[in-house]
Amino acid sequence: MKKIALAFIKLFFGYFVCAIGIVMTINANLGLAPWDVFHQGLSNLTGITIGKAHILAGISIVVLSSTFGEKVGWGTIFNMLLVGIFIDFLMLNNLIPIFNKFLPSLIMMLLGLLVLGFGCYLYLSVGWGSGPRDGLMIALVKKTSKSVRFIKNIQEIIAVTIGYILGGSVGIGTLLMAILGGYFMQFAFKIAKFDVSQVQHRFVDDDIKFIKDKLANKKSKIQE
What are the TM regions of this chain, as residue ranges (predicted)? Predict the structure, then answer.
């Protein structure tokens, strides 16, 4: 139980750190990250907050990934809900400063990417599944046999295009984050000495199977 409790703490703290990084890139005012352009556009269209748009998009993406056969982890579900809630908490309470001058904005945007990288390390290292957007990327890579870079670029181009049409904020920061986001994440992983390829994820269906097996064993013992 102690191990599970510590895993939950690390998982939720990781999501909160991710939210801090995302809000830092938003408040840098240099243009949003590709997926956040889509979230802001969805927010403009529906009148909901960016955090709620993040949740709504996450739910839709998880459903789509599931149709492609990608397994869902408990971490995927918690990610889908909590990151958006934490984003709203930070933004609605003005807990992250907003910058309007280029140099401070650039520094905060880059720091935001690094913070986001550490947040991803924290939740991914628990091994309870990736986030909805990464899950979709993995599902499409498996389905199409295309490279991760190709699928990631296509995803982000579609997200930016739809978001921009819906009024999402696009700027030099959008281009920089699309190019540098992966490098900053890899740098954060390197500092944390984290090899994402070594993580063995546990999925929801693994736990369902475990519970079914336990119940079946218990039933057979009773019958004996």
Answer: 12-33, 45-64, 76-96, 102-124, 157-185
